[in-house]
Amino acid sequence: MRIVGIDLGTTHCAVASVDPSRGPGAPVEDFLVPQLVRQGEVAPRALLPSTVYVPAGHELAEGALTLPWGDDGGPWVVGELARWQGSRVPGRLVASAKSWLCHPGVDRSAPILPWGAPADVQKLSPVDASALLLTHMARAWDDAHPDAPLSKQEVVITVPASFDEAARALTVSAARKAGLEKFTLLEEPQAAFYDYTARHRADLEQTLSHVRLVLVVDVGGGTTDFTLVHAGVSPEGPMLRRLAVGDHLMLGGDNMDAALARRVEEKLLTDGRRLSATQWTQAIQAARTAKEALLGHAPPEKHGVSLVGGGSKLLGGTLSTELTRDEAQALVLDGFFPRSSPADRPRRAARMALQELGLPYVQDAAVTRHLAAFLAQHAAAGFAALGETAPAEGALPRPDAILLNGGVFNSPRISERLVEALSAWWPGAPRIPLLRHESLELAVARGAAYYGLVRRGHGLRIGGGAARAYYVGLQRAADSAEQPALCLIPRGFEEGQKVDLGERPFSLTLGRPVQFQLYSTTSDRIDKPGDLVPLVEDLKPLPPIHTLLKGASGKVAEVPVHLQAALTEIGTLELYCVSDVADERWRLEFELRGTGGSHELTVTESMPARFVEAKDNIERVYGNKPLPIGPKDVKQLGRTLEKALGARETWRVPVLREMWSTLFAGASKRRRTEDHERVFYSLTGFSLRPGFGYPLDAWRAEQTFGLFDALVQHHTDKAVWTEFWVMWRRIAGGLDEARQQKLYAYLQPHLARKVPPDAPPPGKLKGIQPEGLEEMVRTAASLEHLQPGDKAELGRWIAARLKAEAKSGGPWAWSLGRLGARVPLYGSSHKAVDVDTAEAWLTLLLELDLRKIDGASFAAAQLARLTGDRTRDLDPALRERTAQALLAAKASETWVRMVREVVALEAADEARALGDTLPAGLRLS
């Protein structure tokens, strides 16, 4: 058996291995990965580009994709040919899939890549794209080692140190899709350090004799990682211990390429226009090549850039310009590695993170400022490793050496600038030395393989345990202003160990899902498992964890349980609810679907003093036994509840969700009279709005959707139908894609007959005929999980209606704005309609005059909203025209800002976009 290290990189992948049977001196060997480099041409390369190409039909010659192991790759091309072909036919290239694994704003298991590609391009999920790269490496290895397939080897796969548990879980999923089962995850900065120790096995103690604190700076294609390692001496010899890792920074070589590509765009289009998405992809590729040339060894004065303009609605032919060495240095060195003060910190504007091709990058691109913040956060641990005390408040610990990693540092100018900028923070000290490397591209894979050898006792292991501490949020006490969090796993916890929090029991109900909010931190906190701490800012929320508790008996009952946590040998977090009365436990899984909303959960609160009275009033109307109440009591149930609880606008989320529970328990009694049914839908929708944002909302929405198939009992009463549709609009955000599709499948044939002004005379459909057209339209427009094609279809009907009637009132403008919104309220942004469609709708609203159509101004702002993602952003000239129209219509200043700047929605605008009020205390972003 061999130990195989795999660097699953953002830009490139690499493989190395070592034979443990040869003992501590076993050499680490690179594995050259056979891959298609041109059609019909296979060559072994040390690096496998992390790219996947999606060919169109018969674009590539038959048989031109055959690989040595007899596999043509199916519909995909992986590696060098994918990169080469993708630079010539943009829009079909999947790149930076690894960066998408840590993007919480999209469904990372959905086929969304290539981002912004036309509808006819077959798409991949980030997980599947990563699995394809791993599969290619596995089959290449198996072909070269038929008696030792990769699935039977000990595999170490590297991930960024800043990957959270969700991204690690997705990496594990990709590895298993590739057929790997026996593998471990290792952080890339550690792998780079292991490569260094592997090359100094014979003289490591001497090499590190004057080094106590090592700073590892890893700038890859999509992420930047910082790690501090303490190098010490014990009676047994040298000792290495990881002190700290940095928070997640989506910042790397891709951002530098984008900065240079924007400069190319400015030079080519001097009139404020932008390159099309296809041309932008070409510009990124060309900028990367220019960067490597202009910041490399013996750089030229300038580098030519050419783009093919064919197919663009803006331009045709070939576009050419040049990037100069001075421009590259100004944009990359001064923009990403500026000479800064040790007191400088990352700049945070009051806006959302910028996006480029869909990815939410950090707001401040200055690596040096992020590095100063990292050293400040871990100053105490750094000074302790140095055996010093901080000379003054705010002082930073000076590392004795720097180890660089990542292809960005192949540029001697970038490496020099970083060391120069950092050394200047300690003006009285000598320049900080660099620990030498042999290959920035191969160090991580080599170090991963050597790490496997170290785990067997053949080498010096880097101690330090878990890089993060993990906490779970608990219910806030009624008399407390602070929400507590329970420490599950402290920093430094070793892999393979378990924590059993039996001293913290609580009760859960079998047959109902349970959800916890998990938090993590990389700060230097000293907490023990089971400690209760205040929920403070440095505890960062992870995706919620959840499970459905089903007992062996199948009965509904309250059971006492406690939490059990472990760091697996793979390197991932496992959590269980363990029964205190039976031999049962339930695995807690991360929610990885991703939404555009926040993961923040409103804290559970105690109920108002008169809530029992309100509950009794609901049960009087919808209880199992009809009580002597009259029609007036049913009609005025909402008013009766307000007498007990205050004005309904003040009801907080916990009160509303408890009210939903009481209402839903009486759902079967809603059909007693027209008033029973109408009031039930009205209060149920109100109590569950907006369908998400509070623990277990998805489960509540799922339970409520069980009522949909029955439609309405009193189907001749339009008021009942209206409240029925209002309820679904209000809770739409809690319905998953399958349920939203089912809802739209019912609505679509009715809307097709009633919305377009030129629709043929509506023939009657079979079954009950729904009423309430305007609320049906609003409901359909609120279904953000629909496919873009369905949204575009409905939008075309609405646009035709608007154009024909051109009058104020109705749901038409609001619905267009919701269907074409550039930024979803809760859905994944890959479901946004295409730019051409949104521009057509926006142009119509502008032509009709925003001042004359009800809701048109806000709809226009939604359609023209700036995201920073050019695959979704409209033409700049049209956006500016919209901004001017909004000013002329005396629209809100915040609407004008969202067209001109990348900003988050104000609370009032979130409610406006939903077409409803938000519960008191709830924010979506």
UniProtKB/TrEMBL annotation:
Organism: Myxococcus fulvus (strain ATCC BAA-855 / HW-1)
Protein name: Heat shock protein 70 family protein
Keyword Ion transport (UniProt): no
Pfam families: DUF3731 (PF12531), HSP70 (PF00012)
Gene3D superfamilies recorded: 3.30.420.40
Keyword Chloroplast in record: no
Organism placement in taxonomy: Bacteria, Pseudomonadati, Myxococcota, Myxococcia, Myxococcales
Keyword vocabulary terms for this entry: ATP-binding, Nucleotide-binding, Stress response
GO MF terms, alphabetically ordered: ATP binding; ATP-dependent protein folding chaperone
SUPFAM superfamilies cross-referenced by the UniProt entry: Actin-like ATPase domain
Family per similarity comment: Belongs to the heat shock protein 70 family.
Residue ranges the record marks as coiled coil: none
